[in-house]
């Protein structure tokens, strides 16, 4: 996704759009819905996610607090080309980054794109 400036974010945070976040964390949200007895199986949980019920966003917020994401800007030529961030939900369709972390990625805000990865285990 395209990156945009997020000056209100901390250096360790990145803003993830809701559409991207729900797709990346879908398996964790499904597990949360089943554990809270909101859904009895994965099919019902997926339908609740598709319908964008309010409980889905609450569970997504909780899940995101404990799961860092990896941001990667191609080409990854050195170790700063991929870094971990704490995701924060934002509106829109672009990833938000604090301007001071762009140097490591060799990124700017003229249409650069980055990939987001979610580790399955920590």
TrEMBL record:
UniProt record, GO biological process: DNA-templated transcription
Lineage: Eukaryota, Viridiplantae, Streptophyta, Embryophyta, Tracheophyta
Residue ranges of the TM segments: none
Gene from which the chain derives: rpoC1
A Pfam short name: RNA_pol_Rpb1_2
Organism whose genome encodes this protein: Oberonia kamlangensis
Residue ranges of every copy of the RNA polymerase N-terminal domain listed in the record: 1-122
Name this polypeptide is given: DNA-directed RNA polymerase
GO cellular component: DNA-directed RNA polymerase complex
Family assignment from sequence similarity: Belongs to the RNA polymerase beta' chain family. RpoC1 subfamily.
Keywords for this protein: Chloroplast, DNA-directed RNA polymerase, Nucleotidyltransferase, Plastid, Transcription, Transferase
Function as written in the Swiss-Prot or TrEMBL entry: DNA-dependent RNA polymerase catalyzes the transcription of DNA into RNA using the four ribonucleoside triphosphates as substrates.
Enzyme Commission code(s) on record: 2.7.7.6
Enzyme class per UniProt: transferase
GO molecular function: DNA binding; DNA-directed RNA polymerase activity
Substrates-to-products reaction catalysed: RNA(n) + a ribonucleoside 5'-triphosphate = RNA(n+1) + diphosphate
Classification via InterPro entries: DNA-dir_RpoC_beta_prime, RNA_pol_asu, RNA_pol_N
Xref: SMART domains: RPOLA_N
